[in-house]
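Side project, low priority. Logging it here so it doesn't get lost.
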Amino acid sequence: MTTPPVPRLGHNGGPPLEEPDPNASWRLWCWTRAHRKAWKTPPREIALRRLARAEELGMTYRDYQREIMERGRYL
């Protein structure tokens, strides 16, 4: 006779609320690839220009880059 697995800490022992997603690993792979492509370092001239503009606005380079990606426009 086998015993059921011991639930992890914080688990109430009930059934899962959602069905397992068969495409979860594919979406994770696509998201990881897109994230890496979006945050790829631009050419040196562009990075320096963005850094200077970010400093003028009192922002970090990363925050300025995030604004460009979220809104699609340059501040």
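Brief comment: The first helix runs from residue 24 to 38.
Revisit when time allows.
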